[in-house]
Write a structure and sequence with these properties.
Helix content: 55-70%
Number of domains: 2
Oligomer: single chain
Number of helices: 32
Strand content: 5-15%
CATH topology of the largest domain: Amino acid/polyamine transporter I
Largest sheet: 7 strands, mixed
């Protein structure tokens, strides 16, 4: 951009870097309420599942118990503490965590890395739909162990289903309040819960300190491979894995609460969990020969180890804890989808920021889909036993994909190959064994999460592939090449005046280029005459209350490229802000007053009327793309319609709108040249035979066929560049990729990352 062009920029701009959520007592409470619900409820069912899978209480000898406890302790230590808290949380993207945030750091290291990111993200979102249904149903069924609630519920599972659905409805309705408010409400309950876990464990542990031998990892390895001790073999890992299912959600929720608060709170949570597991182990050893307890169906050591008078408190607390466990997956899902949108793996969605911290978000569409999905799972399975069969299978896939991406991060970004290789081999082997053991759940309900994950993967694949196809045809042309045409059009009385101010919304944040589709809409697809043209790009800043704009007038009084910078807490009703911007341009003399001749007001406004033009790309029958790409684009545009319109996102429902549909610019199919036949000759013409028509159609089909992977996106982009150079005004200086102006921020982030990696 030359000096004169720079001089024409009017700037209302301030840049501030986002900072992570700081350590504080209030946020520690929020962290306990938001992050640890899933992993915090694992003592209710982990040892119960291991005892049941090994053949019952009578098979649980001291060596068996110590081996099982050792596996639990070291799974929590290796997977949750080492992999996620100590390693994965170092790999944050502007303080955001989760598999997509991790992918955004390593995506430049290999084009294929997008596949594990998509697979892992889809699996985690699917598990996030299942978890609330499982935990809440399990909690409500647990109320039957209290006489008072059993008198109300009895064995009628329909009542359990109704209560579960009601609780889920309340839970998802609460999401609009934001994770900060929810965390403050849930935080005290979870704090009491973890203290209760520790006290219950200490009560039983004090009678048998020998269970502390479970800290020896050799006992866990021996138990795993000794068939005389472990009746389930490697399949026992499917039950042991239940103790760490919340680890991935912990990483995803980092953006909501800040890594400092997780670092400070995790040691407390882990100690409470391990003490409770040890207490359960001590109780099992002490009661191995109890015939009465051995005869109890579905024996749960967590409740049985408590005195009778305290058991009621435990059931009530566990009910609340199970409900809160759903929160970790819900908030984690918001973070995952937000990162997916930023990476163009999912469509743009309206995001709300209920608190003053940008990391705490609420996505209405995601909340609604999860709400419907959870209720659907409850109605499908009806009881927790069937739901638990699917529990954990999808999350093992996510953990494997995260390990793969972390290996790339450590080796290529941190340049620590000596650490990356053993990390990948060690954790990959452990998690593959967890995955293999969880496969037994597939036919018992796991197929549901696999099906949901597959649907989510298809959505991501379609959106990403469709975006790649669109970008092969995206051309950004220099605006100054079209100023003469726009000036002539704005003064051409042969065309009716469409509006005083015609506004186009654009995704690119450059100051001197425009998407070809916008210029095509103005000049070619019924020329649109206006007194002034505005091309508006909206950016959300990391500060909550930013109200700034940048304007390039190209040295004219009729063409303006505007970037509107709004804080994440600011209501994006851009029509009101545009009125202010145009008023500012009139006052500064950059545009002539647009006086109204008629008005109900005594003082007429010097700002004219507005009309917003929203452009939508569509496929035309003549578009020359492969059958697969055509179906992909059709699905993408269908998904886009289901996700809402910019008119709603930007508060334009009551504004003067013009919806313009332009073809997806692509090479058109080669058409046969028509031959004119005179009327007199046509009367004497011989009818065309059906065989000739069939042969012609076959030839056209062969011409249209294209191998799915042979015509790469790069080849298509090169053809698009060549065609633009030949046919478009300013095509020789056009850009063929999305334009941004925040490259400096990205480079700064990369430099900081490299510096951090050297520490």
């Amino acid at each position: 951009m030359n000096a004169s062009r720079k001089a024409s920029l009017s700037v209302r701009h301030h840049r501030a870097k986002s900072a992570g959520i700081p350590l504080s007592a209030g946020m520690l409470l929020v962290t306990l309420g938001v992050v640890y619900g899933d992993i915090g409820t694992s003592p209710m069912y982990t040892l119960k599942a291991i005892v049941s899978g090994n053949g019952g209480l009578t098979t649980m000898s001291e060596d068996v118990v110590l081996g099982a406890l050792s596996l639990i302790i070291w799974t929590l230590t290796l997977i949750t503490t080492v992999k996620y808290v100590l390693v994965a949380m170092k790999a944050d993207n502007h303080n955001e965590g989760g598999i997509f945030a991790l992918y955004s750091l390593v995506k430049r290291c290999g084009k294929w890395l997008i596949i594990p990111a998509m697979v892992g993200g889809a699996a985690l979102l699917a598990d996030g739909i299942l978890t609330p249904a499982v935990t809440v149903t399990t909690a409500i069924e647990g109320l039957r162990t209290i006489d008072f609630f059993f008198a109300l519920i009895g064995d009628n599972q329909r009542i359990v289903v109704i209560i579960t659905i009601c609780i889920l409805c309340v839970l998802f309705l609460l999401q609009k309040a934001g994770t900060s408010k929810i965390g403050r409400a849930f935080g005290p309950i979870m704090t009491v819960w973890f203290v209760f876990l520790a006290l219950a464990g200490l009560y039983n542990l004090s009678g048998n300190l020998s269970v502390l031998r479970a800290f020896n990892p050799v006992r866990g390895v021996t138990f795993l491979f000794d068939g005389n001790l472990n009746a389930a073999g490697l399949m026992v890992l499917g039950n042991v894995f239940l103790c760490t299912t919340g680890a991935e959600a912990l990483y995803s929720d980092m953006g909501h609460v800040g890594k400092a608060n997780i670092y400070a709170s995790w040691p407390f949570v882990k100690v409470c969990l391990i003490i409770n597991y040890l207490g359960q182990g001590a109780w099992i050893i002490a009661n191995q020969g109890n015939v009465h307890l051995a005869g109890i169906d579905d024996l749960n050591p967590f409740f049985q180890m408590l005195p009778e008078q305290i058991r009621t408190v435990a059931v009530v607390l566990s009910t609340f804890a199970a409900i809160i466990a759903s929160q970790a997956l819900i908030t984690g899902s918001f973070s995952i989808v937000s990162e997916a949108v930023r990476l163009d793996l999912m469509p743009h969605m309206r995001i709300h920021y209920p608190s003053e911290t940008k990391g705490q978000i609420y996505i209405p569409l995601v909340n609604g889909i999860m709400w419907v999905g959870c209720i659907g799972v409850v109605l499908l399975f009806k009881n927790s036993e069937h739901m638990e069969a699917a529990y954990g299978l999808a999350i093992t896939v996510t953990m494997l994909m995260t390990t793969l991406l972390l290996f790339t991060y450590l080796s290529r970004i941190r340049h620590k190959v000596g650490l990356a290789v053993p990390f990948a081999l060690f954790f990959g082997a452990i998690e593959f064994m967890f995955f293999f053991s969880s496969l037994t759940k597939f036919f018992h309900g796991g197929y549901v999460t696999v099906l949901m994950a597959t649907v989510l993967f298809i959505v991501m694949y379609v959106w990403r592939r469709g975006t790649a196809v669109e970008r092969t045809q995206s051309v950004y042309l220099p605006v100054d090449k079209y100023l003469d045409q726009l000036s002539n059009l704005s003064h051409d009385d042969d065309y009716p005046l469409l509006a005083d101010n015609l506004i186009f919304l654009t995704n690119d944040s450059s100051f001197d280029k425009l998407d070809r589709d916008i210029l095509y809409s103005i000049l070619d697809k019924r020329p649109k005459r206006a007194r002034a043209y505005y091309f508006l790009n909206v950016q959300v800043t990391d500060e909550p209350h930013t109200h700034e704009f940048i304007v390039n007038d190209f040295g004219t009084d009729f063409v303006f490229k505007i970037q509107l910078r709004l804080g994440f807490k600011v209501n994006q009703r851009i029509n009101a802000y545009l009125y202010q911007i145009v008023s500012d341009l009139v006052e500064s003399g950059q545009i002539a007053p647009q006086n109204h001749r008629y008005s109900i007001y005594r003082e007429h406004s010097n700002v004219g009327d507005f009309r917003f033009c929203l452009i939508r790309k569509v496929l035309s029958p003549e578009t020359d793309i492969s059958g697969v790409d055509r179906r992909v684009m059709g699905l993408k545009y269908l998904i886009r319609r289901l996700c809402g319109s910019p008119a709603r996102w930007y508060g334009l429902e009551n504004s003067n709108l013009l919806f313009e549909y332009v073809p997806l610019f692509s090479k058109t199919k080669r058409q046969h040249k028509l031959t004119r036949v005179e009327l007199a000759d046509a009367v004497r013409a011989t009818p065309v035979h059906a065989a000739d028509l069939a042969a012609s159609a076959s030839a056209d089909d062969e011409e249209d066929e294209e191998d799915l992977f042979s015509a790469t996106m790069r080849d298509k982009r090169e053809r698009s560049v060549e065609e633009a150079n030949k046919s478009l005004v300013g095509g020789d200086t056009a850009s063929f990729k999305p334009l941004v102006i925040d490259d400096e921020e990205e480079e700064e982030g990369e430099e900081e990352l490299d510096e951090d990696g050297e520490e």
